[in-house]
Amino acid sequence: xxxxxxxxxxxxxxxxxxxxxxxxxxxxxxxxxxxxxxxxxxxxxxxxxxxxxxxxxxxxxxxxxxxxxxxxxxxxxxxxxxxxxxxxxxxxxxxxxxxxxxxxxxxxxxxxxxxxxxxxxxxxxxxxxxxxxxxxxxxxxxxxxxxxxxxxxxxxxxxxxxxxxxxxxxxxxxxxxxxxxxxxxxxxxxxxxxxxxxxxxxxxxxxxxxxxxxxxxxxxxxxxxxxxxxxxxxxxxxxxxxxxxxxxxxxxxxxxxxxxxxxxxxxxxxxxxxxxxxxxxxxxxxxxxxxxxxxxxxxxxxxxxxxxxxxxxxxxxxxxxxxxxxxxxxxxxxxxxxxxxxxxxxxxxxxxxxxxxxxxxxxxxxxxxxxxxxx
Length: 375
What we know:
By secondary structure, this protein is α/β, with parallel strands linked by helices. The chain has 16 helices and 15 strands. It has helices spanning about 10-15, 35-45, 55, 60-65, 70-80, 90-95, 145, 150-165, 170-185, 200-210, 220-230, 265-275, 290-295, 315-325, 340, 345-360, and strands at about 20-25, 85-90, 100, 115-120, 125-130, 135, 140, 190-195, 210-215, 235, 250-255, 275-285, 310, 325-335, 365-375. Strand 9, helix 11 and strand 10 (about 235) form a beta-alpha-beta unit. Helix 9 packs across helix 10. The radius of gyration is 23 Å and the shape is elongated.
C-alpha cells in the first residue's frame, strides 16, 4: 500500500482521504486515548473490515448525525492516531450512488479507461484525456445531483452577492460593457439569447445598448427574477427544450456555463442551431492553462468538480468550437478575478503584478473568453 504520510501530517491525510473510495481496517494500536465517538467508529470497523467513510458514518445514530466533512475529519484523526489504517480502495461508483462513470472524452471521443487522475477534490477525481488533453470529472455526479444544489437559498445568496452591481445600472453596465464592445465589433446589435442567464444582469446591460434580449434559465426562481429585471422573455428550463426557432438569433452567449454541463459538445451543437448563419456565439469559462492554476493547482477556488465538470484550455475550447462548425473570431484571457490572487501569499500577489504584461500574450489569464462565428 502507498505510504500515507508521517504521523501528524494532517494536511497530507486530509488530501489523501478527500474521497470515499478508501477502505479502512483497524490499526495496530492507537497512539492516544480515543473519544467515545472515535471508539464507536473503531468498534464498527472491527466488525466490518474494509468499511468506507460513509459506512462508518452510517453505523450509529451519533456518527450519522455528523456531516460528511465532520466524519472525514474523525476518520483522518483515527488514521493519524494509528487506530485505523487504509487497507484498500473501491470504485467510487460502487460506494456512492450519486456518481456515474464517463466512458468517452467528450471532445475527442477517446476511451476514458486509461485517462490518469490529475487530482481529487470534494470527493471527485479529475482526469486528463490522453488524446486531447481535456480535463474533466470522472466519475462525476449525475445530473440530478449536480443541479439539485440550485435551491432557493442558493439563488438568494447569489442575488445578495451580485446586487451591489446589479441594482446599480452604472456598475452593472461597466461590468458587462467590455463583452458587449467585442460583440458589437463583430456584429451590430440584433436579437440576443443568453443561455444560463441567472437573474438577468447581462441581459439588462445588453438591453440598455439596444439589443433585443431573451434568456434561458433552468432555475424557476432565477428566471422569474431575470424576467422582472429585464422585461424579456425568459424560458424556464433546459436548452434542449427551449422553444425558439432555429437560426433565429444573431448572438448566443454562455457566460460561465459550458463547464457545468454533462456534454459540452452536445450543448454547443444545440446552441449552434439557434444562431443564424454568420451569427456569433460568445462564452467564458475558467482557463485551466492559467497562471492561477499553475500556482494554486486544485486549491484554486474555481476548481470544484461537483459543479465544474470540465476544465478547458484555449486549445481544447478552440477545438470544440471548430468541431461544432464555428470559426474563432476573438480568443483571449482575462485577469480581473482578483479574489483568486487573494488566496495567495504576498509574494504571489507581487508575482502577479510583475507577470501581468505576459499573461494575456501567452493566454495565462484566469478566464477564457471566446467569440466564434457560425459558418
